[in-house]
Amino acid sequence: MHVYLPIAELSVNWFALLVIGSGVGFLSGLFGVGGGFLMTPLLIFLGVPAPVAVGTGAAQILASSVSGVLAHWRRQNVDVQMGIALTVGGFLGSALGIWIFTLLRQAGQVDLVIRLCFVFFLGGVGGLMLVESARTWLRRTTSGVRTRKLHEHNWLHGLPFKLRFRRSKLYISALLPLTVGFVIGILTAIMGVGGGFILVPAMIYILGMPTQMVVGTSLFQTLFVAANVTILQSITNQTVDVMLALLLIVGGVVGAQLGTRFGARLRGEQLRILLAVLVLAVGLRLAFDLFTTPDDFYSLAPEGHG
Amino acid sequence: MKAARVTALAAVAMLLSLGTALRAQPLVADLSQHLVAITAGFTGADIVMFGATDGPGDVVVVVTGPPKPTIVRRKGRLAGIWVNRESMLFADAPTFYGVAASKPINEILAHNQLDRHQIGVDHIRLLPPNPEARRDDIPEFREALVRARQRDGLYGGEPGKVTFLGERLFRARMALPAKVTTGAYRVQMYLVRDGQVVTVQTTPLLVSKIGFGADVFDFAHKDSAFYGLVAIFLAAAAGWTAAAAFRRL
C-alpha cells in the first residue's frame, strides 16, 4: 500500500493520496476553485516537506486547469486577450516569486512564510466570503431587489495604456491585468496555489469582468503560470515530485467531475458558506501550529536548504 | 538475512583456515554486505560485522555515514509566533553514527582516547567550519543536532554489543534505519588492549538508491530542465485525458 515518493524522500500510503486528491478535486468541482489552497496544507499535514508540497502543487494545478480550460473553451467562456495580459504579468510575477522562494529557503524561513501566507489569505478570503454569503442568505429571507451597476468608475480607469477587451466588453488600462497577474504569479510560486481564490474576486471587483468569463479566463491564466512555476521549481529547487503529482491528479480529476455534478444541486450561497467555513478551518489549523510551543526548538537542514 | 548469516559463517570459516595470516595481523574483519540497496520498499537494513583477533582484547566497531555540512536552527518567539532565529553551521556532521563494543566504551578507553578516535556519540567532532565563528553556545546546538539525529534513529544512543564466540571470534550487528542518507559509509573496527588502540581496520560500506525512485531522483537533480518539461507534459496530458474521458459520459 505504500509508495516511495522519490523527491519528497518519503514512503506514503498511495490510497491516502488518492483519497486526498479526490477529496480536494470534489471540493474544487463543487465550489469552482482550483483547490491548491487545500492541497498544499493537506500535503504538509501528511508530512511532505513544505517546499515539495508547493512544487508538486503547481504540477497538479496545471493538470486540473488544462481539463477546466477545455470545458470552458467549448462554451466560449475564455477571454484570450485578457488571459494573455494576465499571463504576461503572471510570468514576471512567478519568476520573482521563485527567486524570493530560493532566498527564503537559504534563510531557513520558507516554511514560515508559506504558512503565514496561507493563514493570511485563507483567513482573509474565508472571512470575507463568510460575511458576504451570510448577508446574501439573510437578504434572501428578508427579500428586496437591489440594482447594481455593471462596474463602478474610479481612479483605476484613469490609468494609461488603455486597451479594448472585446470578449469582456471592457476598455481598461493594460496595466491592470498585468499587475493582477503579477501578484498572483508571486503567490503561485511561493504558495503552490493557482490563486483562483484570489484571482476570481480580483477579476470581478478590480477588473470588472463579467462573471461568466471569469472562471474560464482565470483557468487560462492559471494553466500557463502553473506550467511556468512547474519548470522553474524543477530547475531551481528540484522540488517537483512527479510520482506524488500523478497520484493526486488521478484522484483529483475523478473527484472534480463528481463535485461539479453534486454542486449543481446546491444553492449558491449555501455552497459559499460551506466553502468559507472550510477555508477558515484550514487557515486556523495552520495558525494553531504557528502559535503552539514546538516540541523541539531546534531543527536541522542540509546547508543551503530550508 | 539468512543469506547474510551464511556468508558470515563462510567468511569466518575462511578466516579460521588462515590462522597463519592472523599471526601477522592482530585483527581481521569483514561485513556481511558491502552494499545496502535502498529500493521502493526499503524499511532499513541490518549490517553484520565479524572477524577474528590474534588474542584477548576488546573490540569497538564504529559505523559513520557520509559527513555533510548541516545547519541547526533555533526557534524563538517573535510577536507570538515561533520563528527560526539563531542558526549554526556544522562543517562535517556525519549523517549516521553507530557504535558497538564488547564492553562499555568508558571501561575500554580513557576519555581523551575516545575523543581522539571519535568513539561514542558524545565524542564525535562536531564544530563550525571556521574557528572565528565559534561561539559559546556551540554545546547547545551540538546537543540539538545529536538529539534530532537520535530521534530519527541515525545516531545510536546506547552502544550496541560486540559478542565474542570464544576468545578470538567476534560479531556485531548494526541497524540502519529507513531514513539513512545514501553515500559512502565507513566501518572502523578497533582492537584495544590495556587502554590502547592496537590496530584499526577500515572497511567501506556503500548505501545507494536503486530502482525507479533512484532514477527519478537522479533525473530531477541532474537534468532538471528536461525533468520539468516532462512533468509539465505528464500533468497536461493527464488533464487532457480527464477532460476527454468525462466529456463522453
Description:
The complex is a heterodimer of chains A (306) and B (249). By secondary structure, chain A is mainly alpha-helical. Chain A has one domain. Helices cover 70% and strands 7% of the residues of chain A. Chain A contains ten helices and five strands; from the N terminus they run ββαααααββαααααβ. In chain A, the strands form two sheets. Chain A has a two-stranded antiparallel sheet with strand order 1-2. A two-stranded antiparallel sheet of chain A has the order 3-4. In chain A, a hairpin with a 4-residue loop joins β1 and β2. In chain A, α3 packs across α9 and α7 crosses α8 (211-236). Chain A is globular and about 55 Å long. Chain B is α+β, with helices and mostly antiparallel strands. Chain B folds into two domains: 2-209, Macroglobulin (MG2) domain (Immunoglobulin-like), CATH 2.60.40; 211-249. Chain B has seven helices and eleven strands. In chain B, the strands form two sheets. Chain B has a nine-stranded mixed sheet with strand order 1-3-9-8-7-4-10-11-2. In chain B, strands 5-6 form a two-stranded antiparallel ribbon. In chain B, β10 (183-193) and β11 form a beta hairpin. Chain B is flat. Chains A and B meet through β1, α3, α8, α9 and β5 of A and β5, β6, α5, α6 and α7 of B. β5 (298-302) of chain A pairs antiparallel with β5 (67-78) of chain B, so a sheet runs across the interface.
Topology diagram in text:
The complex is a heterodimer of chains A (306) and B (249).
Chain A (H helix, E strand, L loop, with lengths): L1 E4 L4 E4 H18 L4 H11 L3 H25 L5 H28 L2 H33 L19 E4 L4 E4 L1 H17 L4 H10 L5 H26 L5 H22 L4 H24 L6 E5 L4
Antiparallel strand pairs in A: 1-2, 3-4
Chain B lengths: L1 H16 L1 H6 L2 E5 L3 E4 L6 E9 L4 E7 L2 E12 L2 E14 L2 E5 L3 H4 L2 H7 L20 H14 L8 E6 L3 E8 L6 E11 L2 E14 L2 H11 L1 H25 L1
Parallel strand pairs in B: 2-11, 7-8
Antiparallel strand pairs in B: 1-3, 3-9, 4-7, 4-10, 5-6, 8-9, 10-11
